[in-house]
Amino acid sequence: MKEARVTDVPAVSSKTAPQAPTKTQNSRVPTESDSWQVRLRRVVAFRNAAALYLFAIMFVIFSLWVPDTFLTASTWRSLLSNEAVTCLVAVGLVVPIAAGVVDLAIGTEVGLGAVVVARLLVGSVPIVWAVVLSLLAGAAVGAFSWLMITRARIPSFIATLGVSSLLTAAIAWISGSQQIVNLPSGFEVLGTGLLFGVTWPFYIMVVVALVLWYVLERTPAGRRIYATGGSIEAAQLSGIRTSRVMLGALVTGGVVAALAGLLLTSQLSAGDPTVGPGYLLPVIAAVFLGSTQFRGGRFNIWGTVVAAYVLAVGVKGLQLAQLPIWIPDLFNGAALLLAVGLAAWRRTPGTRAAWGRRLPWLRWRAAAGKDML
């Protein structure tokens, strides 16, 4: 019997063997134009510029509703001037909130600066020294709040709320619970002097905003502030002296609030003990709404400036429409809820994923964005 021979099977060359298509071969390589388009979509996305879209909507509504008053140049000049103090307070509040401290005493700090400078001026203190001492009073309030938070270990929310109550009593004692009038001539120029039709407080606010923006975005001190606000434990492990960071943030907020208070006294030509608390709600709304603008959910200066003036446009339009006096309070309260909600939505990926599961069109947009990469 012949032995069967097994014929050798020729080896298949690797050059001729069919290869399974890989993901890299089928996927399109992103081009420079694609990356530019993706960045542009992120910049103009609603969640990154909600305040600008809100401004556009309100501008159209009020332009059609009250065109005779809303579209006049005098209205917009007065808007820039009258809201400069509110915007200045909001800019000052960005620093402690970025460091993780919610300063609920910011409104009464404005009131303290207003009555202190008025009392000093009535007491024949020179204007320059009265301004300096008022700013030092604001710094002292910030330092006291820091002691309560870091040394007494009181949560910032409770500590600053208690400080606010103490300042309310101090304001009533300094002013005698009445307006301080008969201020020396010349001091009102600081708050009412005009440049290109806009008062000086607007330009002072812009200068302060530029300085704080540079510190927060371009210096190591700003990076330490954001690190402390992001996670105080991680910042301490990184070697950051978080106690000093919080001290600097609170003192900065106190000084800026006192500056806003003395500018307000200059505008009114009187020290009013009741003006401070009314700034708390619109200022916090501006800061939180500003955190959703431009910087991906991070508290920032220019987002706060834009948000403060957008909210002011809404209030001004409602006032020009001669709606009931309680409507602006309703608007500010709704704006605060919306701002905090948007800020929380930006910071919580799980929330966005849950909405993505509920709304099919969000899933479609997400898939379309991935295809572009």
Characterization of this structure:
The protein contains 19 helices and two strands. The protein has 373 residues and is mainly α. It has a two-stranded antiparallel sheet with strand order 1-2. The chain is globular. The termini are far apart.
Task: Give keywords.
single chain; 373 residues; mainly alpha; two-stranded antiparallel sheet; 1% strand
* SSE pattern, N- to C-terminal: HHHHHHHHHHEEHHHHHHHHH
Quick one: overall form? globular
Structural class: mainly alpha
How much of the sequence lies in strands comes to under 5%
Q: List the strand order in the largest sheet.
A: 1-2
The helix count comes to 19
Distance N terminus to C terminus?
A: 68 Å
Give a brief outline of the structure.
The protein is mainly alpha-helical and 373 residues long. 71% of the residues lie in helices and 1% in strands. A two-stranded antiparallel ribbon has the order 1-2.
